[in-house]
Amino acid sequence: MSEEIEETAGDGDRVGSVSASRYAAIVAELRKLVETASRIQFAIGDYALEVEPMREYGGSEKSEAPFTVRESLFRLAEDIGVSYSMVNQTRWTASRWPEERRVTGVSYTVHRILAGIADEEERFEAILTPPAGKSRWSPDEANRRAGRQVVKPVTPQEKVSAIHTLAKDEKVAATVTGDLLKRPTVVAQVKPEDRVKAVTALAREDAVAAAIAPDILRRPDVVAKVAPADRVKAVQELTQDESVAAEVTTGLLRRPDVAFKAMGDDTARHQVNHAQVERGRQAREDFEENSPLAPAIRGIDRSVEFLDLVTACHAFVAASGRVVPGLRDRQLSDDERVLVHENVARVRATLDWIETAVDTGKVDVDGELARLLQGE
């Protein structure tokens, strides 16, 4: 009967369906059988070594012998009625444990696991030194000593390794990941850089990225942390649609500081001027096609300047009628109001100038009017 079991189990304790004393007796008998089984497995390994000694890579296994190592071991396995993998494994384990280094009372399984320790002296020392607090080696303790995964993980790192092993299957990994991401306390402990990688991976699908992006862009604190160059790229991508670009541009040009900086770009200023000319042309065509005054004007011996002037007035009125209603319930800033009043003053001066030119034919501009028209 095992002394250590007797010491830790009282008379009233039970293990499964048996009493502690009966359990101790079972363990004692099974240990004898395990020891016998270990001797058998080592014997198979020793005989396999005799048939095919361990060779260095590129040695005799590369010769023109009548049988290769694998063929010899396979034949041996078939002749004794066991698997090739068992013969091959016991052969290797026996090669790692010379007979004088094998420890009685330690199972073949533990010998096989500790055989993975590369350094020979370290290996021979390890099997003689069970883990602290243990009287004998167990397979899991041997796996820990050899740096291999245990069957029953205890430490956090062992549990992580076990999860990684189970999650090698992509479907299992996807299910586990989805469940873990639903736990805020778990997500909060993930490193920021790993969260970024996770979000990036999850957002590779266009539909997912499109669903996430609006929520992120609605968070000013997040957007503020984005590098200016990346914000520019984002806006460029978002405004590829012309209707979106037009709406965004209109809103931006209503901001005096933005409009001022934009007009500092020669290309942008040229495009704005070109757009104004094109809009005037379209307004003139619209006037000629749809205005009730168009038939009467067609009967007048008119000059190009006359048509341009009438079209400009019509375009101004039309544009004002379209833009001004958009100011409903909008409170302009002081700078915006000042800018609008300055432009209104220029418009009034221009209208007075037009009336003078029409009535008198004089188109001279005095210095004050010239400065006003130039925005000085």
Taking all Cα atoms into account, the compactness measure Rg is 45 Å
| Widest sheet: strand ordering | 1-2
Label the structural class. mainly alpha
Morphology call: rod-shaped
The profile of the biggest β sheet is: 2 strands, antiparallel
Poorly predicted tracts of residues: 1-9, 58-66
Compute the number of helices.
21
Percent helix range: 55-70%
Mean pLDDT: 79
Write up what this structure looks like:
It is a single chain. Among the domains are: about 5-150, no CATH class; about 260-375, no CATH class. The chain is about 70% helix and about 0% strand. It has helices at about 5-10, 20-50, 70-80, 85-95, 110-115, 120-125, 140-145, 155-165, 170-180, 185, 190-200, 205-215, 220-225, 230-240, 240-255, 255-260, 265-290, 295-300, 305-325, 335-360, 365-375, and strands spanning about 15, 20. The N and C termini lie far apart (about 110 Å). Residues about 1-10 and about 60-65 have low confidence and may be disordered.
Give the SSE map:
Elements: H1 3-8, E1 14-15, E2 18-19, H2 20-51, H3 69-80, H4 84-96, H5 108-114, H6 120-127, H7 139-146, H8 156-166, H9 170-181, H10 184-187, H11 192-202, H12 206-217, H13 220-223, H14 228-238, H15 242-253, H16 256-262, H17 266-290, H18 294-298, H19 304-323, H20 334-360, H21 367-373
Antiparallel strand pairs: 1-2
Helix pairs in contact: 2-4, 3-4, 5-7, 17-19
